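With this grant's support, we have settled on a layout for protein records. A representative record follows, to show the layout.
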Amino acid sequence: MIKIYTDGSSRGNPGPGGYGIVLLYKNNRKELSQGYKLTTNNRMELLAVIRALEALKNNSIDVTIYSDSKYVVESVEKGWIWNWEKVNFKKKQNIDLWKKFIPLYKKFKIKFEWVKGHSGNIENERCDELANTAQERELLTDEGYSK
């Protein structure tokens, strides 16, 4: 099983933001992060999951994603995204990201686990650190974000 920890953050909402990812498989560990000039916390939480799934090379291995974002975890685990998809995400935010997420989700056998943020979970804390320090480096433009 591949374990993925993700976190997203923004300083201000909207404001500069970033995501952090820790991928664990057997004895391998990979960390990813990126910062953006102007975005929202929810966009970064979802983008972290998307970028993590894009980084996977083998879709035959079960995946567990640990996130402190109830927005992401409950949207998937409670099946809300499938209803949103049926109505073409009418009146929903982050449509561009959900449309990227869904085909990735369908490629893998994924289970989401919600973890409480800032509660001492070592990997979640590391993702938070990665997301925050990413905001101090070269920032990209979040092309899908609009005020």
